[in-house]
Amino acid sequence: MKIDACGVLLAALVAETTIPVPVKTALGKTATAVISMAHAYTDDGTTFFRDGDLVNALAAYWYGFGWLHFGWASGLAIPPHDSIPSCPFEGNCENLPGTLVPQLEEKTARYAHLLDTARASVTSAPERATPGEDFAGRVLVIASCYAMRGHLCLKKGSYEDALASFSYGHGWLDAGVRAGFFKVTRNRELFTI
Question: How many domains in the chain?
């Protein structure tokens, strides 16, 4: 998917996503925080894209999708039309110009390390055998799957897809921390709490 198309899709989905609980409740405040972060990363990506910083635009948009998809999967937010529309992983990411390769390689390697470190820095917060614990496990599996996907993309030399995967996985994990599904045991600076 082209980076600008990813941004347009993310912006439309964030704008049409609804919060199913009263916003002044604890769940409503959590849902608002999750959707606000998806919106913030949409705006960041758009600013980066407008400024010609395609590497950071790519990372921001896919990070925002991680937050948004977390919101939908957790039930904190409802996707438009009660169905999950297309997502940016339906095809490969746009290949960036060769002049951006050094920045892309550096950021991808850094994001791989950040996601691997973040995954090792959390433990499930909900009590055992509760729906919250089950969902925390699901979030960790998703973050791990996208970390694995990112590392496989790196081996193939597809840095754009690797960066998208690492960003998306970290978005899920970061949202899980913000929503209270994880306790941060170290490296708090890796999370938006």
Answer: 1
